[in-house]
Amino acid sequence: MNKPLFPLGKIVATPGAFKALEESGQQPATFLERHQSGDWGDCGPEDKQENDLSVREGFRIFSVYHTSKGQKIWVITEADRSSTCILLPDEY
User: pTM value?
Assistant: First the structure.
């Protein structure tokens, strides 16, 4: 893993995210490590720039990934770095 850019705080996941990860056989740590190291996944260029700013300035950080089964998942770290949530877009 690359050097963490920010703390994750308390890590939580929604039921849908747990199910998607279970179905793909992937671990949450795979996506959390990418998120925390600045690999924003499938975010668009503007969202990636916003995340880079958010790391420096202490705003919310948002990443988009796909499981090996093609299910889209989001990883969101709150601005105060108190928590990070793994969720499906329709659970937002």
Answer: 0.95
Buried b (16+ CB within 10 A) or exposed e, 23-36: ebebebeebbebbb
Of the candidates 20, 31, 22, 5, which has an alpha carbon nearest to the alpha carbon of residue 71? Answer: 20
Which amino acid belongs to residue 84? T
Average pLDDT, the chain: 96
Q: Whole-angstrom Cα distance, residue 19 to residue 6?
A: 27
Kindly write down the DSSP assignment for every residue of 14-65, as one continuous string: -HHHHHHHHHHT--HHHHHHHHHTT--BT--HHHHHHHHHHHHHT--EEEEE
d(CA 13, CA 19): 10
- CA dist 8 and 18 (Å) reads 18
Domain residue extents for the chain? 10-91
